[in-house]
Amino acid sequence: MGRWRGYDSPGRMSAGTLMGCDSRGRMSADTLMGYDSLGRMSAGTLMGYDSRGRMSAGTLMGCDSPGDSVASMLMGCGSPGDSVASILMGCGSPGDSVASILMGCDSPGDSVASILMGCDSPGDSVASTLMGCDSPGDSVASV
C-alpha cells in the first residue's frame, strides 16, 4: 500500500511516484504538477511557470509561441505578429494599422486618407471621390 501510494519510509511522498513529490515532501520537477525543488512551478510544466515564478512562453496564458507575450495574448492577439494596440483597436490582422482601423478602413489595403474622403473601396482615390466619382473606374475628368 505504501509503495503503491509512493511514500518513502518517513511517510513522505518520494520522487518519481504517483504524486511526484521529492523526498522533502515538495513537488519535484517533471511531475504531475511540475513544481521545482523550491516549491515553484518549473518551466515546461502543466502551469508553465519558470524557475522564478514567472509565466514562461507558451503556457497558461495561451501564448502560441515563445514570441508571444502574456500581455498580447490577454489582449486577444491572433498571432505573435499582432500588437496589443492593434488588437485593442479592432484590427483584423497583423497587417492592419491602428490608424487605418480607427478611420474605418475595411482592410489593411485601405488608406486613412481615402477613407476620410469617403472612398468606398481601397481602389478609390481621394481625388476621384472629392470630385464625386461613383466608382473607382470614374476619372475626375469624366465627372
Outline the structure in words.
By secondary structure, this protein is mainly α. It has 3 domains: 56 residues, no CATH class; 35 residues, no CATH class; 41 residues, no CATH class. 20% of the residues lie in helices and 0% in strands. The protein is rod-shaped and about 95 Å long. 26% of the residues are buried. The N terminus and C terminus are likely disordered.
List keywords for this structure.
143 residues, mainly alpha, 3 domains, 6 helices, rod-shaped, disordered N terminus, disordered C terminus
SSE map:
Blueprint lengths: L1 H4 L64 H5 L9 H5 L9 H5 L9 H5 L9 H5 L13
Give the SSE string.
HHHHHH
Radius of gyration: 28 Å
- The 3D shape can be described as rod-shaped
Total DSSP E strands: 0
Gap between N and C termini, in Å? 92 Å
Count of distinct structural domains: 3
Q: What structural class do you assign from the helix and strand content?
A: mainly alpha
Low-confidence stretches: 1-22, 25-112, 117-126, 138-143
* Major pleated sheet: none
Beta-strand content bin: under 5%
Mean pLDDT value: 45
Q: Indicate the percent of residues in helices.
A: 10-25%
Number of helices, where a helix is a run of at least 4 consecutive DSSP H or I residues: 6
